[in-house]
Amino acid sequence: MTVQHKIILNEVRDYMFITLGLLMYTISFTVFLMPYQIVAGGVTGLSAIIYYATGFHLENTYIIINVLLLIVALKILGFKFLMKTIYAILVLYFMLRFAQDILPKQPNGLPFKLLGEGQDFMSLIIGCAISGMALAVVFSSNGSTGGTDIVAAAVNKLHNNISLGTVLFAADFCIIGSCMFFPQFGDYVDRAHKVTFGFCVMAMENYVLDYVMNRRRQSVQFMIFSQKWQEIANAIGTKMEHGVTILDGHGWYTGRQMKVLCILAKKRESINMFRLIKMIDPNAFVSQSSVIGVYGEGFDEMKVKIKDEKPQ
């Protein structure tokens, strides 16, 4: 397979997983959050607040706000950067519209309550778990759901001392807090109830998102002691396409010199790694340990800023 074919295959895979993540997000929002009028952050949450307050269709507000944000951000971020975001916005728009059309309705026009009356918090937990996983799938595929993500990326590019998380938190805080200014949500106690649930959504969704993303990126270190170290190193290098570092070891008790293989890999690759080692040398001595972070080619990028030091 040529490099060009690999690039195309990776792009197709990204779009497939982005679509899957958007489908999960649609199910989470329309089946678990929307029927109970649970507010959330982002443009989808803002669109829902406007829908609860005015009856203006959620998906229409969503597409209008995103188009305006895209126009503003296009010059800052560039068309290539926004390609997958534009795709996600259009797909999510049609998914939200389709889901609302096919789901049974309550008398107030909202989708039916799958868990029944009085199950607001349980629906919040399930909805946030699904939406957090959905966003992790989208982000892991180099995608974005648009909305406040566009704002965050634009602000971060113009002011790189402001992190993406800070912008997203500030935007979601303002969106959820805006419920206090809509009298359609009832008195101040009812509005405070909506805002509290909204902050719970924000906290749980971000927790699930971070957990899934970190779980996916978690790395481990292998130290392999074996007389068949050359065969193991060759197999790992060719079959798993992993780099192998060979260290010189000296046994204190035996006094013998030996080679030690040091390998850094993703945790999800552990089973294949153990299987490969056992096939070659069932008596190999292997230690596996979790590492806090691995940075460099094939792993995470070192996301630190280098200060420009002025010459003295």
Can you characterise this structure?
Helix content is about 60%, strand content about 10%. The protein has ten helices and four strands, in the order ααααααααβαββαβ. It has helices at about 5-35, 40-55, 60-75, 80-100, 120-140, 150-160, 165-175, 190-215, 230-240, 270-280, and strands at about 220-225, 245-250, 255-265, 285-290. It has a four-stranded antiparallel sheet, with no helix packed on it. Helix 1 packs antiparallel against helix 5, helix 7 packs antiparallel against helix 8 (about 190-215) and helix 9 (about 230-240) packs across helix 10. The protein starts with a helix and ends in a 21-residue tail after the last strand.
Could you give the topology of this structure?
Blueprint: H1 3-33, H2 42-54, H3 58-77, H4 79-102, H5 120-140, H6 148-158, H7 164-177, H8 188-217, E1 219-225, H9 229-239, E2 245-250, E3 257-266, H10 270-280, E4 285-291
Antiparallel strand pairs: 1-3, 1-4, 2-3
Helix pairs in contact: 1-4, 1-5, 2-3, 2-7, 3-4, 3-6, 5-8, 6-7, 7-8, 9-10
